Amino acid sequence: MTDDNKQLIRRLYDEVLNVRALDDLGLYIADTELIETIKRGCLVLYESFPDLHSSIDEMVAEGDRVSVRATSTGSHDGEFMGIPPTGRQISFEYAEIYGISDGRIRSYWCMPDMAGLMRQVTQEAPVTS
């Protein structure tokens, strides 16, 4: 069962998140409120970082839980949290825990490195000569 759960998360990344097929979230997630919450968060990121791509760096599954350590990269080409676009390349890590039953995601928790991301979009650009 843990391999099936890990495969579900890989498919979520490959078939939904990285191709922006947010209307397909319901194929993976059971709870309507959770679908809408994830959709809203993704739309903010997609608008701020239009070329955003997420990669799974590590995945561990036990029982009905899948833990993921992932990295997202992209270009800051849209406003993010009131910060105008800088055109900078960003990269930030995050940890996620998915609760899965009957082949669908029932719960979700995410802890992004927001401090690291904010430093990248607010820091002074390096001086080049």
How would you describe this structure to a colleague?
It is a single chain. With 129 residues, the protein is of the alpha+beta class. It has a single domain (2-122), classed as Nuclear Transport Factor 2, Chain: A (Roll), CATH 3.10.450.50. The chain is built from 3 helices and 4 strands, in the order ααββββα. It has helices spanning 2-17, 32-48, 114-122, and strands at 53-62, 65-75, 89-101, 104-112. A 4-stranded antiparallel beta sheet has the order 1-2-3-4. A hairpin with a 2-residue loop joins strand 1 (53-62) and strand 2. The radius of gyration is 16 Å and the shape is globular. The protein starts with a helix and ends in a 7-residue tail after the last helix.
| CATH topological fold name | Nuclear Transport Factor 2, Chain: A
CATH architecture group name: Roll
Name of the CATH class: Alpha Beta
| Number of DSSP helical runs | 3
Q: What percent of residues are in strands? A: 25-35%
- Main sheet makeup: 4 strands, antiparallel
Helix content: 25-40%
Strand arrangement, largest sheet?
1-2-3-4
Sheet/helix structural class: alpha+beta
- Total strand segments: 4
Secondary-structure element pattern, one letter each: HHEEEEH
Give the mean pLDDT: 94
- Uncertain segments are none
Query: Distance N terminus to C terminus?
Result: 56 Å
Overall spatial form: globular
